[in-house]
């Protein structure tokens, strides 16, 4: 069973690593944000509430999130493992998540903490460029990920854009919030002995190799 969780500050490479794990292990990537965005399109009381909450940037009520997570994890495709993304966001959610997993006969698996210093993150944030069409991610501040032409995608030729929150001011707010909110979650998983600290400043392939070795090792336990 390969149950995986990533904890990482903004622009630490969480999305890239999650995608690589999905490709290699063929397990579903369960993102609470994605599930909620789908629900927000529904013309129902729940759909309207979720749309309003997402738009305001607040967190959706815990009872709703717990129910969605439990329903999703019950599905057949989660039997051989999954990546959980965007959840838990608070210590309270982490404790509830342990209960949900217990009920479903699942375990927490591996929790990967991608560690990167603030200066490196700032550099990544300001250099990040995303393709409007195929959503590929580039970085003009990183040799490994620089697009061949600064404003267009290497894969499909689409226009590259910068996310509106990828600026220093927004980053500092998001980073501060990340540290405040996730510190207790990190301690929680450290106490459980399931937390793996990964140096996220290494090249993408090296980071993945480290993660991959831990996943393989955990399967033999
Ligand atoms: P994300 O795509 O992870 O940035 O999530 C987008 C939005 O979905 C957040 O701003 C929240 O409004 C909501 N959301 C996602 N995950 C959770 C969660 N674990 N608890 C409550 N709200 C969430």
Number of helices: 8
Largest sheet, if any?
A: 5 strands, parallel
Bound small molecules, by name, code or SMILES, are:
adenosine monophosphate
**Helicity range:** 40-55%
What is the overall pLDDT average?
93
Specify Rg, calculated over alpha carbons: 18 Å
Count of DSSP E strands? 8
| Secondary-structure element series | EHEHHHEHEHEEEHEH
Strand order of the largest sheet: 2-3-1-4-8
Strand content: 15-25%
Unreliable runs, pLDDT <50, ≥5 residues?
none
| Spatial separation of the terminal alpha carbons | 10 Å
The coarse overall form would be globular
Structural class: alpha/beta
Account of the protein in words:
A five-stranded parallel β-sheet has the order 2-3-1-4-8, with helices on both faces. The protein has a three-stranded antiparallel β-sheet with strand order 6-5-7. It has helices spanning 14-25, 32-39, 45-56, 62-73, 91-104, 118-127, 168-192, 204-219, and strands at 2-7, 29-31, 81-85, 110-115, 128-131, 137-139, 160-161, 195-199. It has 221 residues and is α/β, with parallel strands linked by helices. Helix 1 (14-25) packs across helix 8 (204-219) and helix 4 (62-73) packs parallel to helix 5. The chain binds adenosine monophosphate. The site of adenosine monophosphate has 14 residues, from helix 2 and helix 3.
